[in-house]
Amino acid sequence: MARFRTWVGIALAGALSVSLAACSSTGGKRAEDARKAAAQGRAAVNTPRWTFAMITHSGDGDTFWDIVQSGAEQAAVKDNINFLYSHDDEAQQQAQLVDAAVDKKVDGIIVTLAKPDAMKAAVARAEKAGIPVITVNSGSEESKAFGALTHIGQDETIAGEAVGDELNQRGKKKALCVLHEQGNVGHEQRCDGVAKTFRGTLRKLYVNGTNMPDVQSAIEAKLQADRSIDAVVTLGAPYADTAVKARTDAGSKAEVDTFDLNAKVAASLENGTLGFAVDQQPYLQGYQAVDLLWLYKYNGDVLGGGKPVLTGPQIITKDQASALAEYTERGTR
Questions:
Q1: How sure is the predictor about 10, in pLDDT bands with cuts at 50, 70 and 90?
Q2: Sign of the CA dihedral 180, 160, 238, 53?
Q3: Cα distance between residue 308 and residue 135, in whole Å
Q4: Which of 57, 86, 154, 188 could link 312 by a cystine bridge, Cβ 3.0 to 4.6 Å?
Q5: C-alpha 96: how far from its chain's center?
């Protein structure tokens, strides 16, 4: 549907061929029964009711993490899991939430590593307690070193490189990369990835992502000061609309592009307000994290072979946006 990098296509083709080879009439019936059970809010398995805790670095009101949580909850229903979700955008507080999950003696932990140094000790404590850990979304480079079973998400550097390539194809010459959370290693990797492949000039703009009026005024000031900026790249869907408002108020003709997808971004792609978006499939990140923990507890399964399980990047343009509208409206893309 959209342009995938070669490695994404190979991985998906391999997964599809394996699933088709393994599919029989009985297997197909089991899969359909599992789908119906989850849709009806009941478990599709009779394994013990294990408790899994997901602790993310999300701030309040971030729609991206609503989608991650939704995917995790859907898998938890299917897998008969008692699912606990908590979050804090302050790294020390997030680490304390991991410690609290360890104290509760949960059966598995899913955690983000946006600020890995602050999370290292908490993850080590979980490992010492014998609690399996899966990292998700951020921290792919630290995940294995921290002892996690696997990491699920997109490689942020490769995602940034995909954006740089797309900007080149669109003939852009000067781009502004807006970082809304200082200290987030994934955000730095995204912008650095853009710079790696973008043949034009890239400038970073650090903003306070918890204050949208400040974000808008900071972007607007940059666009007013430098009329040669012809692309603004935001690192989260909620910031794309703010960047569009800043562009309008600045009287700029810069294209606004963004990482991540939600219903508003899909609509803006379709009507041409945004140029393109990079989808890392957050619903899949949450769903797969819970499902893989269940598989590990049930059958000792681990995916990735020591490498991250990639859920992106996928470049979404106007041509693909309409096909995704149904999914974004229901909160799964």
A1: very low
A2: negative
A3: 9
A4: 154
A5: 22
